[in-house]
From TrEMBL:
<feature type="binding site">
    <location>
        <begin position="46"/>
        <end position="48"/>
    </location>
    <ligand>
        <name>L-glutamine</name>
    </ligand>
</feature>
<comment type="similarity">
    <text>Belongs to the glutaminase PdxT/SNO family.</text>
</comment>
<dbReference type="GO" id="GO:0008614">
    <property type="term" value="P:pyridoxine metabolic process"/>
</dbReference>
<dbReference type="GO" id="GO:0042823">
    <property type="term" value="P:pyridoxal phosphate biosynthetic process"/>
</dbReference>
<feature type="binding site">
    <location>
        <begin position="142"/>
        <end position="143"/>
    </location>
    <ligand>
        <name>L-glutamine</name>
    </ligand>
</feature>
<keyword id="KW-0378">Hydrolase</keyword>
<dbReference type="GO" id="GO:0016829">
    <property type="term" value="F:lyase activity"/>
</dbReference>
<dbReference type="InterPro" id="IPR029062">
    <property type="entry name" value="Class_I_gatase-like"/>
</dbReference>
<protein>
    <recommendedName>
        <fullName>glutaminase</fullName>
        <ecNumber>3.5.1.2</ecNumber>
    </recommendedName>
</protein>
<dbReference type="InterPro" id="IPR002161">
    <property type="entry name" value="PdxT/SNO"/>
</dbReference>
<feature type="active site" description="Nucleophile">
    <location>
        <position position="78"/>
    </location>
</feature>
<dbReference type="InterPro" id="IPR021196">
    <property type="entry name" value="PdxT/SNO_CS"/>
</dbReference>
<feature type="active site" description="Charge relay system">
    <location>
        <position position="202"/>
    </location>
</feature>
<keyword id="KW-0315">Glutamine amidotransferase</keyword>
<dbReference type="GO" id="GO:0004359">
    <property type="term" value="F:glutaminase activity"/>
</dbReference>
<dbReference type="Pfam" id="PF01174">
    <property type="entry name" value="SNO"/>
</dbReference>
<dbReference type="GO" id="GO:1903600">
    <property type="term" value="C:glutaminase complex"/>
</dbReference>
């Protein structure tokens, strides 16, 4: 099994390293014709506007949209999630082109700037049920987006409470939102819809490989000859649940 990783900008090397740990080859994708050699794709985190400009320069958007429409598994992390969303708000002037396919509205940089990056323990019952391990996952959020609305066919895999003194406004960043009445609001940070998976955080920056294993099972379901049992057997060689080595503020 070979998994394509869009390698225009961002944390594509980190995703490839995790795939290697799980015994799977990651293939760097930079041109439309390279998509023909893979049956699945990871769109990594990075600077979404820059990635979009590079994708447009290489004429990748038509091929990426066709890849999604063909039902091939695609996982977007952080900026990759923005790429997959049908609608994005909080963008720079002029906006950016999207691949689409994921029936949701994403707010770009919802949690603030680079210096407001953080870690948080997320409840992930669906991941724990399928991959085992603890019921929580330590999410790393770096200039992270958030999912404000989802369609009826979208499965929510994780959410997070925003600070109780903020309101959820899809037309502004979290920093500029008005004071609320004191009640906390939930925003969604991980979803699945058919062949598409989206996370607002960066699983590739932690030692917990369960999200990658979960995605590989999605791939195995559509790749002839692949089976989820073989992927689990590979994954069992590694320790999924070590604490991440990076140290960001804890989101309370």
């Amino acid at each position: 099994m070979a998994v394509g990783v869009l390698a225009l900008q961002g944390s594509f090397n980190e995703h490839i390293a995790v795939l290697r740990r799980l015994g799977v080859k990651g293939v760097e994708i930079r041109k439309p014709e390279q998509l023909q050699s893979v049956t699945s794709l990871i769109i990594p985190g990075g600077e979404s506007t820059t990635m979009a400009k590079l994708a447009e320069y290489h004429n990748l958007f038509p091929s990426l949209r066709e890849f999604v429409k063909m039902g091939k598994p695609v996982w977007g992390t952080c900026a990759g999630l923005i790429f997959l969303a049908n609608k994005a708000s909080g963008q720079k002037t002029g906006g950016q082109e999207l691949v689409g396919g994921l029936d949701c509205t994403v707010h770009r940089n919802f949690f603030g700037s680079q210096i407001q990056s953080f870690e948080a323990e997320l409840l992930v019952p669906s991941i724990a049920a399928k991959e085992g391990g603890p019921p929580t996952f330590r999410g790393v959020f770096i200039r992270a987006p958030a999912i404000l609305e989802v369609g009826p066919d979208v499965e929510v895999l994780a959410d997070i409470l925003v600070p109780s003194n903020k309101t959820v406004d899809p037309n502004s960043t979290l920093d500029s939102q008005e004071e609320s009445t004191g009640t906390a609001d939930k925003v969604i940070v991980a979803v699945k819809q058919g062949n598409l998976l989206g996370t607002a955080f960066h699983p590739e920056l932690t030692a917990d490989t369960r999200w990658h294993s979960y995605f590989l099972k999605m791939v195995g379901e559509v790749v002839e000859g692949a089976s989820s049992s073989s992927i689990v057997a590979v994954g069992e060689e590694f320790s999924f649940y070590q604490q991440p080595k990076i140290d960001l503020p804890i989101f309370q």
